[in-house]
Specification:
Length: about 210
Amino acid sequence: MRLFLVDDHPVVRAGLVALLGGEPDMEIVGEAADGAEALRSIAARSPDVVLMDLQLGEGVDGVEVTRRVRGLPAPPQVLVLTTYESDADIMRAVDAGAIGYLLKACPPEELFQGIRAAARGESVLSAKVATRMMRRMREPGPALSAREVELLELLASGASNREIARRLYITEATVKTHLVHIYDKLGVDTRTAAVTAAVERRLIRLP
């Protein structure tokens, strides 16, 4: 199977090349250090599976790259491989079309099995991620949408309504509507309380 690596750390990419190169059924056909480079190269290389980190420095992040890659004709499967495990990261990645979510701390054999499963079109989740998703499904009360979680993360970074609207390509009126829904779901009535509640429930991670 043909693999493409997207990670902004050269040492991580080199380690993955060395690790995966020992598997007879896996071939690394390309790698990228940032989102723009990934988007330019993936369509040309036609991989079967893309291993995607979420944080790629400046520019397009791994979630947006995943969304665009999955929109390609005959798209490859995208398997997230990252250190981040917040509900927000998981929800955004899955919502963008990732078939799986593994943590970089996973054993090599789990990574190998995950890649092979992803190539077959099977969902892949590390044990910790699966536990978090199951717990979230069991939590009472209305769940936040991926967009609401994304908005909360921007809120936590101190962004104003105008900045949030610009970052998410929506209007300020839509931002206010989302905030009303978030406040209602979390049982709060201020921006600060919403962020505090989201952090306590581990829905987001602070920047």
